[in-house]
Amino acid sequence: MGRSPSCPKEGLNKGAWTALEDKLLASYIKAHGEGKWSDLSRRAGLKRCGKSCRLRWLNYLRPDIKRGNISRDEEELIIRLHNLLGNRWSLIAGRLPGRTDNEIKNYWNTVLRKRAKGQASIGTPPSKSTQLPAAQHTDKLRDGQLNSTNNNQEMSGNIATVEAHNGTQVLDSLYSDGGGTDLLNEQLKERDVEFEENPMQPLAFDEAMFKNWTVNPCLNGNDAMDFDSLALLLETDEFSFCRNINFQT
DNA sequence: AACTCGCGCAACCGCATCAGA
DNA sequence: GTCTGATGCGGTTGCGCGAGT
To answer: In the UniProt record, does the keyword Nucleus occur (predicted)?
Structure first.
């Protein structure tokens, strides 16, 4: 299993995404679906690393995404799941529809960890993964009454149990205690079915037209873009000067 | 008004794993 | 079985912004 090379450093944009980049990425994925990220970034006309595109889509552009305003229920679920799984953010996120691993990780690192730290007693050495108390203490945590009675060994045992099994099936059994989890499971199943019922759309492609627009100077290095992305790009003010150019040669 | 500081969060980085050649 | 590219994940960084002085 070799390692993939990092994203090439030269010629790619870094840092915050612009509205135009978001639009290009979203419209491309809407038309052609996810996957093949490195190829996708090129075809969508984005000077971005494939990994960067994937992250942007998964964390911010996905239509079913929820941002901010993490509810008490969600917060409690995060805490309980973290007790069971440790820093397995993607698994935790999988149990919170519309939430991303990055958001949960950030929420944990800012709000919950700080709160736990503030309430923890003196003399408890911080563990590497900064565990919170076990599930039965979540009410105290929520009410700001958390103390040092957490049992790290017990948590480690839980984590080890989960590690010994595999992924979310274990969680299903661990969370068969009712509450909102059944609803969550149903929602997750619905999303899975939805995903399977919407395979990637084939890309409509016109060879002659492709040859015409790829030689146009307005493309300026965007010759791998698909039609939709190009059209989107040309709609922007930045490329307004290109609109009157005849693409037929 | 100008400056500093701390916080939140978006994005990057490195590594692990998977899948296909 | 090995190699390589693609993808996924968790840790970390650094920028932007608001609060405080």
So the answer is: yes
**CB proximity list for A43: less than 8 A, separation 6 or greater:** A28, A32, A224, A225, A226, A229
Where are the CATH 1.10.10.60 domain residues in chain A?
72-179
Distance A145 CA to B16 C1' (A): 38
Q: Which residue has the higher pLDDT, A142 or A67?
A: A67
Tell me which protein residue sits closest to nucleotide C14, measuring alpha carbon to C1': A15
What type of residue is A93? A
- For domain A72-179, the question of CATH label 3.30.160.150 is answered with no
Closest residue by C-alpha to C1' distance, nucleotide C8: A90
3-state secondary structure of A27: helix
pLDDT tens per residue, range A136-151: 333 333 333 333 333 3
From the CA of A15 to the C1' of B2: give the distance in Å. 28
Distances (CA, A) of A15 to A65, A153, A157, A222: 22, 41, 40, 20
Least confident of A73-77, A89-93, A109-113: A109-113
Q: Which residue has the tokens 């998964």?
A: A58
* A102 CB below 7 A from strand C atoms: yes
Q: Check if residue A217 sits with its Cβ under 7 angstroms from strand C.
A: no
C-alpha A208/C-alpha A219 separation (Å) is 16
